[in-house]
Amino acid sequence: MANLDEQTQQNVEYMIESIKSKLRMATAAAMQASHFDIKQYEDIRDLYEVVASKEHFSISEVEALVSELGKLRNK
Length: 75
Hints:
This protein is mostly helical. It has helices spanning 9-23, 41-53, 59-72.
């Protein structure tokens, strides 16, 4: 596992890919790790920790998490 205490683009990519995998996102191809900036690192990590802490998600939880992820994307 990556050392997520280090704010690197590689860690951003790791967390985004992990979130996409865990949520089994249908739109995963549209949500590329390169669309996220290291400036959003702490917010991405918070989202990553929420996703990593749960085994199963309801549809509304997935929708809320994907919405938050979308807000963090570079415009």
